[in-house]
Amino acid sequence: MIETDINKLTDAEIAGQLVMPRIDFSLKGYFEQAVRYVEKYYVTGFIIFSGDIDQVKKTTLALQAISKYPLFFGIDAERGLGQIVEGGSRFPFLMSLGASGSKELVELQAVNTAREMKYCGLNLLFAPVLDINTNPSNPIVNVRAFGDDARLVSRLGSAYYNKIKDENLFACGKHFPGHGSTDEDSHVELPVLKKTAEELLELELIPFKKAIESDIDFIMAGHLATDKIDNKNVPATISKTLITKVLREKLGFNKAVITDSFRMGALREIGIENKIAIKSLEAGCDIILDPVNGELLIEKLAEKIKDDHIFSSKVKNSIERLFELKKTIQPASDNFPDRDCSGELVTRIARESACFVKGGPLSYGKIEVNIFDVTKGGKNICRPFLDRLKTNGFDIATVNYITNDFDFKSYNEYDTINVVVTTVSAWTKYSELTNYYKKVLTHISRKQNGNKILISFGSPYVIADFLDYNIIISLFEIIEPCQKAAADVLSGKLISNAKLPIKF
After folding, report:
1. Annotated domain spans of the chain
2. Catalytic one among 260, 286, 290, 373?
3. Residue 20's closest CA among 234, 256, 363?
4. Catalytic residue (choose from 149, 187, 217, 223)
């Protein structure tokens, strides 16, 4: 049972309950370190990285068994458990669901993710993304968002987290106050959101307001500054104005606020980790996520709690919020969802999200394929797409994997399929085409004979510069079901009603 009298907790226990370090299954000694965090530092839980489903399950069960207080086990599984844990299902980016517009698909994905998590003993999902991606150059939200429309994000976001709650897991909406209009990746640097509180209320905060009305359990504070509300060097994570005055008082959120990872570059220039963490807790956050040095942080927090009565009283309010949630933590499930059904759902989402942006099916014949891969995935990255084209009756004359020194001189009468592969991933900035790729694609559009087809896997915003192509198809992920869906749409074997959930 959880100790209901917060005043009976020691300073060390209170400090530990405010911190969620990571378990990285790829590192040697991960389990021994986790045990130390539980037994000596009383951590509130862990964020999970890597591992396979049985390894994760074994670890969460063992740690829950020895912990004095129930543990949160969180995971960044926006695209399903398989995004992080081997053996889990991996779905396309959330913008695929936005393109389908289907509440049913959103709910099915949420249920699948929740049940795979429950098998592994995981109980806190850092999803859905409630950002509204209004900036085409956004390098880190982009296809992780449902779209650029507040109503769409609110509708699909609420369907997502309500199903997570129905499965007795905790959902966490992110990244407050809204990361969708920024230019920077907060993993690398501190983005600045140039909007007033009133402007945020008119757009970015709409999905968060909806989530609060639906009684969501967690909201994640993003490492992004708002220079018209607070100082340009003060991220929301440590802003009392945003967390206490806007989120808690204005929007009425009384559940748990967790920070984004403390390992991100947005915090690098601000100060020492333990001092930033104290500011974050003073601002109204309840959990410090993924610190660089969790043990030192907990020790410093315990000292602060002991010496500062005002700080101690404030964080005890956080403990009360967290313990109310911990009372509802359920044991791990014995049943893992049927893998065939999960695979069918991934395929269905891929096929119902394939957007025919321009043109119609391509007549069978000889074609040339050019691959523009920003992600550096290797020359075989589009093999499922190419194989499906052949199965569907196309005669592929040549396949060119375009590099920065590619000598594009040939002109022929073939139709050319130009495949663009981008993605959104922390620290990489792989969401935009290189200048060289843009140059070659422009050259093809002007000089190459035959139909010019553009197939985009990843960010749909790359299409905007090439609307003169005859046929344009957009999907939001490079996984095999998406590649096959693109080939089937192009071949006329698949009719999709999907629409781009963004505007150029």
Report:
1. 18-339, 354-491
2. 260
3. 256
4. 187
- CB contact burial 16-52 (16+ within 10 A = b; e otherwise): bbbbbbbbbbeeeebeebbeebbeebbbbbbbbbbbe
Query: Domain 354-491 adopts which CATH fold?
Result: Rossmann fold (3.40.50)
Instruction: Quote the pLDDT of residue 404.
Output: 83
E strands, 31-121, are 45-49, 72-75
Q: What is the mean pLDDT of the chain?
A: 95
Residue 410 confidence (pLDDT): 59
Burial of 260 (0-12, 13-18, 19+ CB in 10 A): buried
7-11 LR contacts (CB < 8 Å, sep 24+): 7/316, 9/319, 11/302, 11/305, 11/306, 11/312
Other residues' Cβ atoms within 10 Å of the Cβ of residue 228: 15
* 8 Å CB contact between 128 and 162: no
d(CA 419, CA 472): 10
| DSSP H/E element including 118 | helix 103-119
User: Which amino acid type is present at position 246?
Assistant: V
Q: Is 260 known to be catalytic? A: yes
Q: Which CATH class is domain 18-339?
A: alpha beta
Q: Is 190 exposed, middle or buried (0-12, 13-18, 19+ CB in 10 A)?
A: buried
pLDDT, tens digit (0-9, with 9 covering 90-100), for 155-179: 999 999 999 999 999 999 999 999 9
Residues with Cβ within 8 Å of 366's Cβ and at least 6 positions away in sequence, in order, are 394, 395, 396, 397, 414, 415
Q: Closest Cα partner for 31 from 70, 76, 62? A: 62
Asked if residue 223 has a cis previous peptide bond (ω within 30° of 0), the answer is: no
User: H helices within 266-362, ranges in order?
Assistant: 273-283, 294-307, 309-326, 339-352
Instruction: Say what the pLDDT of residue 5 is.
Output: 79
Residues 6 or more apart from 117 whose CB is under 8 A from it? 75, 77, 81, 123, 125, 169
Distance of alpha carbon 419 from alpha carbon 219, whole angstroms:
37
Which residues of the chain, if any, have pLDDT below 70?
1-4, 408-412
- Coil, strand or helix: which one is 40? helix
- Comparing CA positions, the residue from 136, 214, 145 lying closest to residue 182 is 136
For residue 45, the cross-strand partners are 72
Active site residue 187: yes
